[in-house]
Amino acid sequence: MTISLSLTVNGKPVTAQIEPHTLLVQFLREQRRLTGTHVGCDTAQCGACTVHLNGRAVKSCNTLAAQCDGMSVTTIEGLAAANNNGNSNGNGAMHPMQAAFRECHGLQCGFCTPGMVMSAVALVNEKPGLTEADVRANLDGNLCRCTGYHNIVKAVLAGAEGMQTTTAQPAAAV
What we know:
Distance between the termini: 50 Å
Shape: globular
Order of helices and strands: EEHEEEHHHHH
Number of strands: 5
Number of helices: 6
């Protein structure tokens, strides 16, 4: 038995037939071929599968795709094409958080990076004016096996500044 699923993925409407037990991470990776959402632990412990569901960071390995019917999902692939207001920037530029992770060396092997970036963007959107302590406390559900988190924390704080700068810039005249 399959069920119909209609949702928005990275700004585009999607309709699909899925098994009722299909996890969101499976739907994204296997049916949509959005492989930036990683499967790390299958138990919602590592955060590698983090995506935004209606703007909120969720772990897609323990979310049924059917629960997302009518909702909006943003993956790491969609973040690159959108600014922090969710509007397409059209120029292929990285999101400020992605750029900060690159500039601050907030990654090593890269496996945890998509989930870290998605969690960090949601954190900044929920709590502007972050401190280092805020970042450390709020990224506790995202595991990195390579680093001591120092550069990740630096990257999140730099990304937060970049997101505020992007938001504060006036719209260009057309």
